Amino acid sequence: MIQFNPPANNFLPIDPLLKCGEEWIHDHEQHEEDDDDFHGPITFHVQLPIDTHRLNFNCRDKSSGVLLASEPSVRKEDTYDGPSDPFFFEKGFYLEAKTGFQVWPGSRLMVEAFTCSSLKEKLSLGGRLNILEVGAGIGVVGSCLAAAGGNVLITDLPVLVAHGIGPNLRRNGRANTSIRTDGGEEECDRKQQCPKFLMGTCESETTIAAIDTESIDAVRLGNGWAKAAVLDWFKPVEEQLTQATTSDIDVIVACDCIFLRKLASPLLTTIATIFEHSRSNNPKFFFTFQRRNMMGLFIQLEELLGMIEERGWTVECVAWRDVVVEDDGVHQNYLFQVTPGTRPSRESAR
């Protein structure tokens, strides 16, 4: 198996224009409007360079390898170390669901690529794109891409949609009570402006009828829209998302969620379905991957790239950087672009 080495000219240093940080939620009463959603002691925040609105995300644990030394962070020794997880007995709560309640390095790399680096123009990531995020965790990346102007369907397992993505969307949606139009502020008419791409995720008209209530998960964030939905890679896509949605996707993103070997094939099958349904849009798939010291259950990068190429897809490393993971040293983190089409040689793909 050929060792993967990233192109030196695609090294992408952290962009200081993107501001991140995390802090303890010291006063629960300050979040009393979110009592039904409160399932974590930490708030992770992101300030995009293209939007003055700060996005806040409730987390179960501190981030890993995401923050600069100059950015506010939570000490590891102060994090939650209780005897059990509150979602342990919920259906669908696996290791991959547990890790979804915190933020990982690839999230920052993906957000920068879409919002504040030269990659945005190089990869044609501007404009109003219909974006599907898979394995979204608490929804950091999808929310940021929506704030940057995308229509984003943010998906994961039911436990993460119910206790992570949905609550965080509602929280940020409430903070984003108005939109800027022609240099001024006006109240957001959600029912009229919510894009059809996100309305079409539900077969029932209930979503549209209730669009102005807090119970709905389609919200205006910054310059775009976001909505939460369940998408389990081990189940057929057609049983979970409507044809209207899966046939109108421009970009698929996945951050820090391809690490267990058992997840790779189901995810790629899910991506293949989207590629087929949205082929008229020439969709692209972007994913991040972090090298790890552990083997066995964890898939190696070269094995994953081989699985992608076996499907006849083109895969290219468009950006990478080194990340420092607490108690685990320095690791390379990559951003790959995958497109359906003729497979290149191993050398040209690298």
User: Major sheet: order of its strands?
Assistant: 8-9-5-4-10-11-13-12
Structural shape = globular
Structural class: alpha/beta
Residue-averaged pLDDT = 81
Low-confidence stretches: 178-192, 203-215, 343-350
The residue fraction in helices comes out at 25-40%
Q: Largest sheet, if any?
A: 8 strands, mixed
Order of helices and strands: EEEHHHEHEHEEHHHEEHEHEHEEH
The radius of gyration over CA amounts to 19 Å
* Strand residue content: 15-25%
Treating each run of at least 4 consecutive H or I residues as one helix, how many helices?
12
Instruction: Kindly report how far apart the N and C termini lie.
Output: 13 Å
Summed up:
The protein has 350 residues and is an alpha/beta fold. It is 26% helix and 24% strand. A hairpin with a 2-residue loop joins β6 and β7.
Describe the protein in words.
- This protein has 350 residues and is an alpha/beta fold.
- The protein is 26% helix and 24% strand.
- The strands form three sheets. An eight-stranded mixed β-sheet has the order 8-9-5-4-10-11-13-12. Strands 1-2-3 form a three-stranded antiparallel β-sheet. Strands 6-7 form a two-stranded antiparallel ribbon.
- Helix 2 (105-115) packs parallel to helix 4 (140-147).
- It starts with 18 loop residues before the first strand and ends with a helix.
- Residues 178-192, 203-215 and 343-350 have low confidence and may be disordered.
